[in-house]
Amino acid sequence: MMVAMRVLVVEDEKRLAAALRRGLVSEGFAVDVALDGTQGEWMATAQVYDAIVLDIMLPGVNGYQLCGRLREQGTWTPILMLTAKDGEYDEAEALDTGADDFLSKPFSYVVLVARLRALVRRGSAARPAVLACGDLVLDPASRRCSRGGTPVELTARELAVAEYLLRHAGDVVSKAEILDHVWDFAFDGDPNVVEVHVSALRRKLDRAFGRASIETVRGAGYRLVDDRG
Ligand code: CA
Fold it and tell me: What's the whole-model pTM score?
């Protein structure tokens, strides 16, 4: 029994776009077509698709840029990129920008459909899981953090420290561990930089909400806890 899948096709060549639509519809997919990158971006974020077929060569926003933007915005719909040339360079770049798979033109529908089905089955592998401890939530993919649903603005470094604490919620983590994971291995500055960032996090994530979730464990380090009582 086949489940209908909704696919967005972003392709500026009208004949190819129409052929793609016909081919995929006949395979039981529900298909929407965007004829340029801007329209594609709008549609991909306004609606939920099971997969996106994305051409690289598009006027305005090209496929690489569109893929990168969608990932930045936290849209993790699986993307199958259509590369014009079959060069390794294209494929590497497609995967680099966050595409899940690629297919070189010209391609056969049998292969396209098989790839799409496989993509939808396995979903987007790129998306990291959202981290939470109590009502503190951090999404590493969109780089957003919130407390009780209220967004909190963090610097890139604060976000990285918060992410490390969240990944080890309930455990004691030492300053040295945080330093190792969040700062460059070649960092040889003052290890107190960790304290500076932890106090910024306490101010933004705890005190601003009347909370105390980042505990100091004397002589050992820090522990993030669910302090909702
Ligand atoms: Ca094109």
Answer: 0.57
